User: What shape does this take?
Amino acid sequence: MTYFKKTYNKVLDLSGHKHAVWYLGGIAFIESSFFPIPADVLLITMVLAKREAVWKYIFITTLFSVLGAVFGYLIGYSLYEHIGFGLINYYGYQESLSAFKNYYNEFGNLAVLIGGLTPFPYKVVTISSGFFQLDLFNFIFFSIIARGLRFFIVAIIVCQFDVYIKNKKTNDIFFFSILISSFSILAVAYYIELIGNHTPCNLCILERIPYFIVAVITSYYFLITKDFKKVKLLVFVIAASFTSGFLLSVYHVGIEKNLWSPLISCSNITGLNAENIEELKNSLNNYIAVSCEQPSFFIFGASLAELNLIISLFFAIISLSAIIYYKKLFVR
Assistant: This one.
């Protein structure tokens, strides 16, 4: 971990170097094949330092990331036993290698797109693609889309935050932060469900609703109205949504801790899809009943319900504070 921190800090220091652009390209290249620190770290600091060069930075990061991806592909294709295997073991990515194989079997070439966009280690995607001998043309095509879109999203978000902060637009900062946070939380939830193959219980699905509501409200703010009086109502709806999400999480965590029993059945049954007797037999073998009482997915030792309790409480406090100090925080 100390090595990782030192490397991370060195990457940050490179953003102020006179040859920072070339360092950005170099890190984007090696990150796609063996380097542990994502190029996003350096990209963010460089965009903040020189926003007018954002398109140049996006292009360079994408270009060298794809070139590095081809290099990673070649490692997996021709040098897996000599280099690829050692890299996978060194970073502890054995399970990620198996996971990518499963993704590819399920999603085909879209697995490269998914891997390039999400927090999934991209070096695993590139080395695995070569090792499993994915079509090189398709691999490059989806890598260009995935990496270009990822770096574009990161850079544009950073640019927008920078504009709001420099112009002291507290209204926009509040709504933009809430919007990005809600989309990110929903993205993680669906990533765990669709890519991680973890079926959520019914309460987990209900706990996503407040984030959808908040995403719609914040989008309405940017697209429809920024009227000072109407904005207060929007903040009130946001606060109500996060507060209801917090209370729902409290109820869910209480069920997990056996503090109380669920009022109604909250199991989500999956795997029972069949059109004939034979398919029904196979479905029964794959039958899964996901219960709200027994969490099966943990992050840093906490269940998803416990994490959502903390997150929704944080945003509920922030949004309720925004209502209380509305006239001080928001500008006409």
